[in-house]
Amino acid sequence: REAREVGPAEAACRRAAGVFARLAAAHPDRPAYRLQHARALSQLGTTLARATRNAEAREAHIAAVAVGEE
Length: 70
Fold this sequence. Notes:
By secondary structure, the chain is mainly α. It has three helices and no strands. The protein has helices at residues 7-26, 31-50, 54-68. The termini are far apart.
């Protein structure tokens, strides 16, 4: 499978994950922020997998699950 260039998508996912991580930390009473943080990490994992960066993709998916289970 051919690796794809995912630079802009990766950057956007990382920015979104950072924003929602900060929001979730600042507002622990708002589960929607934690959910969006997990979704951004999951999308990051999918994006990295498209670039055949499988180890990084796995780490992002594991992080997404961990955030979702908090």
